[in-house]
C-alpha cells in the first residue's frame, strides 16, 4: 500500500466530505493511441500491434502505472488552507472549503486578513481527508453517464426545481436547468480550460472511499 497526494478544489472537497463524490477523472499523460484492453492493479495493457505480415502478436504491451495508485492504495487530499500562529510551533489549521476564516483567535490574537495557502503547498500532516482507492479504469471522458456524473459530486444544485428527472438525467420540466452530464462538462472546462471537454481525452477513472486518517 502506498500513499500519494491529490489536489481537489473547494467544491469537490465539500462533495467528498458530504459523501456525494466517490470518483475522480484525471487526464492520462501521455494520451494512449487506442483503448486499453484491460487495467490490472492500476496498469493499463494493450495487445501488441500486428507484424509486417498482418498477424496480431499475442504478447501484451503494458503502459505506465496510474499516477494515483491502484486499488488498496491511499490518497491524501491537498486543499487550500491556512493556519493560526503561523510563526510558532503550534497552530490550528483552517480549510477554505469550510467557507470561513477566523478573525479573532483565543488569547485575543487578531488576524484581520484571509491569508490562504494554495493546496499544492499543503504538507501531509495538515491533510484532514484520506481516501482509499477502490477501482481504477481508463475510458474516454465523454463516456461518462449521468449516474457517474452524480458520483463525481455534481449533485443537483444545477436544477432549479424539485421535479423528478427523466432516465437521461434531465429535469422533467422546462425550467431551464441542465442535465448532470452537461453540468459536469461545464465543471471540466472550468478546471481544465475552455474546450477541454470537446477534446474527449482518455482519462483515469479513480473510484475511492473515505477512511479515517
Description:
The structure is a single chain. With 213 residues, the chain is an alpha+beta fold. It has two domains: 3-44 and 61-80 and 118-211, Archaeosine Trna-guanine Transglycosylase, Chain: A, domain 4, CATH 2.30.130.30; 81-117, no CATH class. The chain is built from three helices and ten strands. The protein has helices at residues 10-17, 146-151, 180-192, and strands at 3-7, 23-27, 38-40, 43-47, 60-62, 74-78, 81-83, 93-95, 130-140, 202-211. It is globular. The two termini are 14 Å apart.
- Helical segment count: 3
- The CATH topology name of the largest domain reads Archaeosine Trna-guanine Transglycosylase, Chain: A, domain 4
- In total, the number of domains comes to 2
Estimate the mean pLDDT confidence.
80
The helix/strand class is: alpha+beta
| CATH architecture descriptor text of the largest domain | Roll
Which percent bin holds the helix content?
10-25%
The H/E string reads EHEEEEEEEEHHE
Q: Tally the beta strands.
A: 10
- Distance between the first and last residues' Cα: 14 Å
Radius of gyration: 21 Å
* CATH class identity of the largest domain: Mainly Beta
The major pleated sheet works out as: 5 strands, mixed
Amino acid at each position: 500500500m502506498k500513499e500519494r497526494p491529490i489536489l481537489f478544489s473547494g467544491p469537490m472537497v465539500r462533495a467528498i466530505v458530504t459523501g456525494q463524490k466517490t470518483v475522480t477523472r484525471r487526464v492520462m499523460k501521455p494520451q494512449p493511441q487506442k483503448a486499453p484492453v484491460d487495467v490490472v492493479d492500476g496498469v493499463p495493457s494493450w495487445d501488441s500491434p500486428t507484424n509486417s505480415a498482418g498477424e496480431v502478436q499475442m504478447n501484451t504491451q503494458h503502459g505506465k502505472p496510474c499516477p494515483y495508485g491502484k486499488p488498496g492504495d491511499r490518497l491524501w487530499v491537498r486543499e487550500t488552507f491556512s493556519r493560526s500562529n503561523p510563526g510558532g510551533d503550534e497552530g490550528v489549521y483552517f480549510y477554505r472549503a469550510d467557507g470561513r476564516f477566523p478573525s479573532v483567535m483565543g488569547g485575543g490574537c487578531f488576524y484581520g486578513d484571509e491569508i490562504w495557502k494554495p493546496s499544492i503547498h499543503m504538507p501531509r500532516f495538515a491533510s484532514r481527508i484520506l481516501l482509499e482507492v477502490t477501482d481504477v479504469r481508463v475510458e474516454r471522458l465523454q463516456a461518462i453517464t449521468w449516474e457517474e456524473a452524480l458520483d463525481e459530486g455534481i449533485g443537483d444544485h444545477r436544477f432549479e426545481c424539485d421535479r423528478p428527472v427523466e432516465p437521461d438525467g434531465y429535469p422533467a420540466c422546462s425550467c431551464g436547468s441542465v442535465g448532470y452530464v452537461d453540468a459536469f462538462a461545464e465543471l471540466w472546462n472550468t478546471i481544465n480550460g475552455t474546450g477541454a471537454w470537446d477534446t474527449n481525452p482518455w482519462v483515469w477513472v479513480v473510484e475511492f472511499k473515505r477512511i479515517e486518517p
